[in-house]
Amino acid sequence: MSDKDVIRKDDPGTGTLVRAKPKTKKPSMYKVLLLNDDYTPMEFVVHVLEHFFGKSHADAMRIMLHVHRRGVGLCGVYTYEIAETKVNQVVDFARRHEYPLQCTLEKE
Ligand code: TYC
Predict the structure, then answer these.
(1) 9 DSSP assignment
(2) pTM score of the predicted model
(3) What distance in Å separates the CA atoms of residue 87 and residue 73, rounded to the nearest whole number?
(4) Helix pair 80-96, 42-53: axis angle to 10 deg
């Protein structure tokens, strides 16, 4: 018997176990993706990955080069609210520096 099993109060003592209904659901997770463009400087993208996604300099370089070569790359996986906030922060930061850097989210 696991801690997820319950015995009903009106169980007549047959020992029948009933699976308890889980009260929580795992939230859907969302990928935050960075897209390549021809104008945003590489150092700017590395800074974004370090500052907004907590990447080490080495990981930020690796991800930036992957995006540069392949067109798109994964920055992180988050719940919807956090993913949405990251996308807005990155796009807003890039716009303020007049770079066309694009960042999107995709349901896992
Ligand atoms: N392609 C850009 C350049 O050559 C660098 C770059 C990398 C831009 C990743 C965006 O998401 C990006 N300056």
Answers:
(1) T
(2) 0.81
(3) 14
(4) 140
